Amino acid sequence: MKIKIHQILTTTLTFFLLTSCVNRERNYFVAGKFEATNNLISYCLEINEISEDTYVLSNYTNVVEDKVNGKYFELEFNELDNDSLIPINLINLKDSNPNTKAVPISYIDDNGVDITPYYPHDIDNDYYYLIVYESLYLYFERIN
């Protein structure tokens, strides 16, 4: 009886470990302009590729080192409120799950803002980003 329970638990654990692996090649940053709307508030996200020197000189504000493709990006994240842009600084973006050895699939800043890039790899969908900001789940779609 103990052997059967052990086999079932081992099989189940192995299944979950194997199926929890995701294709991290889809989680890389790309340059572009993106927007999201939550109720009546709009958000803008502009991403541009930068050099490693610019990344280091930025004091790690509004920049990210993409661990998937080894590139560096500047991020401009803004809230559009009554026709005025309110900048939201992303400070020291780093791996959201630093205790794993896996390639990062999402990044979090010192203020708890989380950003996840995703490319669905199908013809009907384009690249998008998910940002969790002040308990809001903002899905950014490309606008250019």
Q: What's a concise summary of this model?
A:
The protein has one domain.
Features:
144 residues, alpha+beta, ten-stranded antiparallel sheet, 10 strands, 40% strand, globular
Characterize the structure shown:
It contains 2 helices and 10 strands. The chain has 144 residues and is α+β, with helices and mostly antiparallel strands. It has one domain (26-142). Strands 1, 2, 3, 4, 5, 6, 7, 8, 9 and 10 form a 10-stranded antiparallel beta sheet that branches. Strand 9 and strand 10 (136-142) form a beta hairpin. The protein is globular and about 65 Å long. The model is unreliable at 9-24 (pLDDT under 50).
Reading the helices and strands in chain order gives HEEHEEEEEEEE
Low-confidence stretches: 9-24
Percent of residues in helical segments?
Answer: 10-25%
Question: How big is the Rg?
Answer: 19 Å
